[in-house]
Amino acid sequence: MVGVNKNIVILISGAGSNMAAIVRASRERRWQLRFGAQVTAVISNKPSADGLAWAAGEGIATGVVDHRAFDRREAFDAALVTHIDAHHPALVVLAGFMRILTPGFVQHYEHRLINIHPSLLPAFTGLNTHQRAIDMGCRVAGATVHRVTAELDHGDILDQAVVPILPGDTAQALAGRVLVQEHLMYPRAIERLLAGAN
Ligand code: GRF
Question: Which atom of ligand 1 has the smallest separation from the CA of 14?
Fold first, then answer.
């Protein structure tokens, strides 16, 4: 990644625990000093997303583009692009952002759009990943950080974390253990990108 100011914009829809992990890591590991990088904005499609208040409390610009105000996906994505581009991002990070993005959006952010998905891709794209892994009798589950392409939950894999599925596991218990690993992996993957190693 080139350029002096590497602004990072994070998109969320809910709790934003991955977003918070990235913000904390950016400060603890001095991304500003080392890479000229900082999280400049957190944007949600849901006004009620808990992560928004947390980010605002940390002094980060927040924004809402409510998808319910748009009747077409393209119109929502266009408004989202306007909000995001106001921050001139070097990297756009999807962190629990629960909207499917149009090919036009994905193309606009080609090479600077990444996502975290709670499965070991290419297995279990889509929703309910942990329950499906348990139902299939998988012995391990996990999460994947990947580049975003027009095809849902595809794109180059940047990192993966593996978590064992325990006897009697519930989707909720498994999700909690996977989330702990997500919080370690996502900042690590971003740091590698900032360092130009991916
Ligand atoms: C994470 O499990 C992530 O992998 C998935 O949605 C969840 C978001 O959690 N895409 P949070 O909002 O970061 O707490």
Answer: 12
